[in-house]
Amino acid sequence: MNAFARMALATLATRGVQAIIVAVIVGIVSFAMMQALPGDAAYRIAAGRYGYDMMDAASADAVRAELGLDQPTLVQLWAWLKTLAQFDLGTSAVYGTSVADEIASQLGYSLLLAAGAVVASLLIALPLGIASGLRPGGLLDSMSLAVSIFVRSIPAFALGIVLVLVFAVQLKLFPVAGFQGFSNLVLPSLTLGLGLAAVSNRVIRDAVVDAMSADWRLFARTKGLSARLTLTRHVLRNAALPVVTYIGVQLAYLIEGVVIVESVFAWPGIGHALVHAIFGRDIAMVQGTALVLGLTYVALNLCVDLACRGIDPRGRTA
Amino acid sequence: MTHSIEVDMLSVFAGPTRLMGPVSFSVAPGGTLVIMGETGAGKSLIAQAILGTLPGALRAEGHITINGSRVDTLPVAERAAMWGHELATLPQEPWRALDPLMRAFRQVTESYRFVAGHPPVQAREDTAEAFQALGLSGAEDRLPGALSGGMAQRVAFAAATAGKAPILIADEPTKGLDAARHAKVVDLLAKVPATGGTLLAITHEVAVTRRLGGHVVVLRDGQLVEQGPAKTVLSAPADSYTRALLDADPQCWPHSNPHSAGDVILTAQDLAIARDGKHLIDGFNLSLKQGERVALTGPSGIGKTTLLDALAGLLPPASGHVTRAQGLSRHAVQKLYQDPPAAFPTRIPLEKSLRDVARLHKTDWGFVLRTLEHLGVRPSLLSRRPDEVSGGELQRISIARALTVRPSVLLADEPTSRLDPITQRDTLRLLEKVAAEENIAVVLVTHDRHIADKWADRILKLAK
Amino acid sequence: MSNQSEMMIDAGVSGAQSTLPVSRMTGLALLALLAVAAIGGPGLIGGDPAKQSLLHTLEGPSAAHPLGTDNLGRDMAARLLSGAQLSLSLAFLSVITAGLPGTLLGIAAAWFGGWADRLLGAFADAVLALPGLLLVLMLAAISPGSWWALYAGISLTLWVEYFRYTRQRARIVLAEPSVEASKLLGLGPWLLIRRHLIPEIGPGLLTIAAFGAATAVTSVAALGFVSVGIRPPTAEWGVMMTELLPYWREAPFLILQPVACLVLTVLALHLSVGGPRRP
Amino acid sequence: MLKTLNAAICIAFAVATNPLLAEPKTDVTIASPWEIASYDPTVSGSIVQSLQIMETLVDADAKGVLRPALATDWTVSEDGLTWTFTLREGVTFHDGSAFDAVAAVNALTRAWEQPGILQKAPITGISEQNGKVVITVATPFTALPSILTHSTTIIPAPAAFDADGNPIALIGTGPFSVTDFTPPQSVSMARFDGYWGDAPKLESATYLAASRAETRALLAESGDADLVFTLDASGYSHLQHVDTIETQAVPIPRAVLLKVNSEHPFFADARARQALSLATPRAGIAKAITRFPESAAGQLFPPALSNWHSADLAPLETDLDAAKALLAELGWMPGEDGVLTRDGERFSITLRTFPDRPELPLIATALQDTWREIGIELEVSVASYSEIPKGHQDGSLHVALFARNYGLTPDPIGTVMQDFANGGGDWGAMRWDNPEVTGAIQTIASTADPEIRAESIAEVAGILHQELPVIPVLWYQHTVSIDKGLDGVIIDPLQRSYGLSEMYWVE
């Protein structure tokens, strides 16, 4: 396992460098884009704060004065980078709370949701993908393709609402929305998970088909291993490789889906917050959120890398 | 008397067309059956039919009896139950037959564990012994990718025979092995009948047949041409094709007439080469003259292929240099590959590939067609894709493709090691012929010293 | 296995790939149909996609309105048709703008390897790490109501998938001896790509594209959901999904219509590619 | 799909913990669209107030009649420039600390420094004088007590602020104290036993912000939420047929308005604005979009605003031909593409609105189509509502569609003054200076005499009805769904309170 440890460290290092790059890029890009947005930031922030009943020009001017929005942009960027260097994400322009605290609470919820989604997608996609991979072109295979296409063509919110109707309103199995208990996690996870599974079950299926048609698989059989043993000891492991890598790509898609699902299920997550922050021109919040999301993505990708190395010993034995 | 394998009027069909057969033969315990014939004569189909691993599109007819019980009527599941316990198989391509992600040791252990049904600890001990016995010590923790062909073949052997199946079916077990390893594997097979087992070997190498002995079946175009005890078949073949097959054995080739060499066109001065940081060859010198035929031999893994790449300018030498004669075009050095299908774009009809080259080098298409005709390739084949023509034909087409460039040097990397003796001989003869006509220098990498002796003007032996 | 394939050929039994299967025919037919719908637009049935009748909303199919009317009493058929124009061109354009650079960069990465590869790889990861949503929302916000910005943003987030796939597959293909041979024979990059890469990775790419088209439209829906996107009264399938969501209980058949259209499109693409990938 | 459904159901049974069973009926769950993300009264005061966590000095009943809250009574000096509020004795904050004038003055001063309602009043000073709160104003301002009912003037405990005076907690004097706060989605509360008033019957309550109307409707239907506010039209009509809940629609003093730039050459003439009004399909919108026929706005001030709504104003009508005629009078002639033109200028304008209230973009789309018929080309821009005040300030605005709440304070005069006095305001008339109206409004603001007030109000309402600096479109209904088991629910038209302290469960 020593070789594995070395490999792991190497990966860790490269990912670490990447993390720094990401941090800088994300920070600057998001800042630049926020600056590029049309409309008067002071007005947007005031709107975000006071709501349409209380927001007016006066409040906007007050905000402008309070936040020093009339400073040159570079000064503002520099200020942000300075605070960041002290591991401080600044305070939310809209809510006046510490961005770090906001994210701390919301990120947890979002990660929980994302994890739930991945689990749900695997619970659905693995059996489906493997089964259709074992009989390519079979009934199950073509059906799962059709269903996948269908699910992928339904927007997440519609899917979510249908699930709520079936499982919460009709079957009364789970709560509709909120986040009191674990049961609250099920439907949102399922909504996202179905979206993911729609694609990943095809990826799994293809991987299994590849593995099943490989020479080594036939040899494993002819040397006397039962079909089941061949599947569990050889096919699945080989098929797992592309699948795990694909999860890496999905992570990005997750962050998209999270936004929708969070607002459908009133889930206090980070995606929801990001949207509000963008509309409210809450620059510190946007940068902070984008930064954290970026780093989270890098971290999760690291796990994916390590998982791949774990599965695939090639290149380890040097 | 009981036969461990008894085949009666076996034929294999693809739809309505008969691909192979009918053949009938039988082997008794302690006996050996060798199936000979040209590549693509359907030898493998027999093995697959006996095993029950024929691809879905194919269908077998006739009786197959194994250890007294008829199997061809059994459902797949029950036939699969015999694998490893009554029938063991040696794969054609040991590399591709081993799980790329599992270390050699475990791939054997799992046979002892799950096929022989030994408890884990004992399974590991047995594996260790097997590795000892097969001289695989040190390879335990290697992945198939890191095994040499011979090692992979022996690992596969260990994995296949762990179940102590009395019958071993070996399909082209010596494909692409160098002389030394070649012998090792054949010895391994020879042991099987010696220990009371039954061996069914498929090969196109006369040498292998000679060494294994036993009962010989000769196939051609799926037809049984002759069978009998090895001694009689090999010494006094009744059928002309068998004779041709025996004559085609490099041992029996006449010495090809030496060619008057012209001026030097390619020189290598104390060349040192390395691949992936691994140091392979150094102090290699060569001055190649127009039209001469050089054979390059040496144990596998020493870096013959890498050396060719260096000569072809595909790989920068670690030190020393390769210099081409003045006025030699950039594409004057061409390569022929060991595995012809791998040398062509997979999904493109052959004609397209050839026309591309012809167009690029402003070669008249007529010339290409003439060359093909010259090499005895039916033009109709050109409409097919590489995987749709036989290895012999494809190798000839790849020669034609190389000639389209009007090269001065051909670097041939075991171009015939996967072909049966007749095709091999014909292909090399053609190569010799065109080389002479076009005054092309050929460097032939081979591990068959007879070929080297008989075919080349001079031999370069690479040694550690 | 190669042996018996040779045998089959020699025996004159051709491989399965020569004939065009029924599924592909249907796929192409469907595509043609959609193309006609998109080009003809609402003109085909002579309806005005923007004409409202507030007194006849959420009505079921009738002679006047074959597919019923939406929440403002507009003719669904007309809206779906004019939506086809926007949605299909959006899907198409975003697939192109994402697929082309993604594929080319992927090939470049595999081709040059080493630093170029690592650089591009890191870049792709960085883009993925930058919440795609952020990009899209920003671009949408920078020029509100313009769907050019929308699809630009969407394809910005989609190209990475093509990149990753191409890079990984191209690496394998380019390492094959056949490529080395072709290089020796003097084939230039363009020919190498056309003869070696495209045939190998084409089908896979098209499958991604088929799903990508769906993603493009559903992303528009998602953006509409956070009330960013195309201005009224523009009809676009994704936008319609969002607009009709509130009435999912009263008139589920309405929101199902744009979804069905999208399903049809993706299905068509899939079938015409040849269904599930792999030769 | 079946396969996946099965899979889902398997997961379901694996983890299902059904919250509907074994629910002690002393708890209420409220769902509403408004998220609560800040501790700052100026940002999230209205929810904090509605949930009865914090209280104001002055309170108002459902009819808008003022009543004592943290202040027991208030007096104004002869000159009307000094207000004195006597505070309630023995009130404690949730943290046990005592409520006193200092806490009140600090809270009010902070609110006054922030942009908000207090800055709209002519306040000159807020101070503590022997246990009382004293507020001085520059000019007589009778609506001051009314303003002190506003949610941004709630009184948090001193402990709710950190050293620099930033709000860091939700601690008040209300009947419910916060037990758990998960911004922006939910607040959990427990009955505060030290409350000065009658103890609530409920032991605990949970507030859940569900931004999507669809989600809220499902929450109501499933029974996850006992009380759901602000339902969309479709959800509302569906819930009317669900037998576990009853639905209510209460008219509130909120109106959907069209703000018109009266300085713009197209709209400078009142007849142009009247034309737009005539081309506004109020009935159709009321039927198709809000689905309350009675919500078509016949005049600016909604009936809920009893003092300001006047029965003798002829309701505004919809008449496209009349509209066309008026525009023709103004020299607008249809061009070849049907769009009106006047000396080479096309009648092409942009309407600004925002999506935060889902009905607004729909209404805008409806206007777009109707106005197309009379030859007005309307571009609808759905963006942040801040674009409206912005456009008001820089004059770039043509027309804006928004919802205006005249019930921020029981006495809307403050709002009316901002909107229509001195040339109008961000959410009112634009570049429309009308001395009579300004005068009348000042009178209303400064006098307590009901007679004079009524007169001036009538005058203001009348002129606005004629001149239409803003064009009324709809009046709002406050839609609520209530669990049938829940009793004592009072829906406050001023939306000052969810009425938690009164409601209780009947078994």
3D structure, described in words:
The complex is a heterotetramer of chains A (318), B (464), C (279) and D (507). With 318 residues, chain A is mostly helical. Chain A has helices at 2-36, 41-54, 57-67, 73-85, 99-134, 139-153, 156-170, 183-212, 215-222, 227-264, 270-279, 283-311. Chain A has two domains: 3-85; 106-279, MetI-like fold. The longest helix of chain A is centred in the last third of the chain and has 38 residues, at 227-264. The mean pLDDT of chain A is 84. Chain B is an alpha/beta fold and 464 residues long. Chain B is built from 16 helices and 18 strands. In chain B, the strands form four sheets. Chain B has a six-stranded mixed beta sheet, sandwiched between helices. In chain B, helix 4 (104-115) crosses helix 5, helix 4 packs parallel to helix 6 and helix 13 packs antiparallel against helix 14. The relative contact order of chain B is 0.11. Chain C is an all-alpha fold and 279 residues long. In chain C, 70% of the residues lie in helices and 0% in strands. Chain C has ten helices and no strands. In chain C, helix 5 (132-142) packs antiparallel against helix 6. With 507 residues, chain D is of the alpha+beta class. Chain D folds into three domains: 54-160, Dipeptide-binding Protein, Domain 1 (Dipeptide-binding Protein, domain 1, Alpha-Beta Complex), CATH 3.90.76.10; 176-244 and 484-505, Periplasmic binding protein-like II (D-Maltodextrin-Binding Protein, domain 2); 252-477, Roll (Dipeptide-binding Protein, domain 3), CATH 3.10.105. Chain D has 15 helices and 21 strands. In chain D, a hairpin with a 5-residue loop joins strand 4 (71-76) and strand 5. In chain D, helix 8 runs antiparallel to helix 10 (320-329), helix 13 runs antiparallel to helix 14 (435-446) and helix 14 runs antiparallel to helix 15 (450-467). Chain D is globular. Chain D starts with a helix and ends with a strand. Chains in contact: A-B, A-C, A-D, B-C, C-D. At the A-D interface, helix 2, helix 3, helix 5, helix 6 and helix 7 of A face helix 1, helix 2, helix 6, helix 12 and strand 18 of D.
